[in-house]
Write a structure and sequence with these properties.
11 helices; two-stranded parallel sheet; eight-stranded mixed β-sheet; 43% helix; 275 residues; alpha/beta; 2 domains; Rossmann fold
Length: 275
């Protein structure tokens, strides 16, 4: 009897070690869910949009779409995507922001939308810097007219960027406290915090952001618990306001390009860039 119990315990331990080992090895395939495309031409989906290329510091060329504002000094929004799909999914948001008089840059991270490379926290930090650099140089956007918008995982990307290179304003849609916190919600039986290579410490970093910050969340979010987004808002160094969209889940259209979301971005743009 004792021998059977010990054998079962040993088998269980071996299975656990194998599972943890596989998760350690392939964890980024669970975090990053790229759609390789094809991605249409900007002009096919965005009136006034054009295809541009971004050059990263480590030698990659990334695809992007740029929709300039109606005037040379129009506020412009740098959009950092969530962990799934490609920039085509965010085209309705870009159209809505453009219709409101803002310029917009949509881009895909490495490994997304036909781009070379494999995504990681360090890699995405280089990618968003390439996007910012392009806007300031080729795009002709003044730094004081530039806003960052981060969707879910993208909130971690732009919050880190905002600490290093402050924008005029920061919008975080469905942000999590950090990647381990949201991972633990979905895999409570695993030592997620010990396993993760990528961290995205949004709540920690946003406390160091010194520009007006708006947090948008859905009250029925099943991916990022709403309380985590509220915690990010409470941690913000300069919280402008929190926008809660009643009954909205993580990928509902109302959180992709809905009126409340778009209005929150436009309001912050006007607040931070109007003379």
């Amino acid at each position: 009897m004792l021998r059977s119990v010990l054998r079962a315990a040993l088998i269980g331990a071996i299975v656990l070690v194998v599972v943890v080992g596989l998760l350690w090895t392939f964890q980024r395939r669970l975090v990053y869910l790229p759609d390789a495309g094809p991605v249409p031409a900007a002009a096919d989906v965005l009136p006034g949009g054009r295809d541009v290329e971004l050059a990263t510091a480590d030698g990659l060329t990334l695809g992007a779409w740029f929709v300039p504002g109606p005037t040379a000094d129009a506020p412009t929004v740098l959009v950092a995507n969530g962990n799934g799909g490609h920039r085509g999914v965010r085209a309705p948001l870009a159209r809505a922001l453009s219709d409101a008089g803002l310029g917009v840059l949509l881009f895909d991270y490495r490994g997304y939308g036909g781009n070379p490379g494999s995504p990681s926290e360090a890699g995405l930090a280089l990618d968003v810097r390439a996007a910012r650099d392009w806007l300031l140089t080729d795009g002709g956007v003044p730094a004081e007219r530039l806003l960052y918008y981060g969707e879910s995982l993208g909130a971690g990307v732009v919050t880190e960027l905002a600490v290093a290179h402050p924008p005029a304003g920061l919008v975080l849609r469905s942000p999590f406290v950090d990647l381990a916190a949201v991972g633990s919600e979905h895999y409570p039986f695993l030592p997620v915090r010990l396993l993760l290579r990528d961290r995205y410490p949004v709540a920690e970093l946003v406390s160091r952001v010194e520009v007006p910050t708006t947090v948008v969340l859905g009250t029925a979010d099943s991916i990022v618990p709403p309380e985590q987004s509220r915690e990010v808002a409470r941690a913000a160094g300069q919280l402008h306001r929190t926008v809660e969209v009643p009954g909205a889940d993580h990928n509902d259209a109302v959180l992709l390009d809905g009126d409340q979301l778009v209005a929150a971005v436009v309001e912050l743009a006007r607040l931070t860039t109007d003379p």
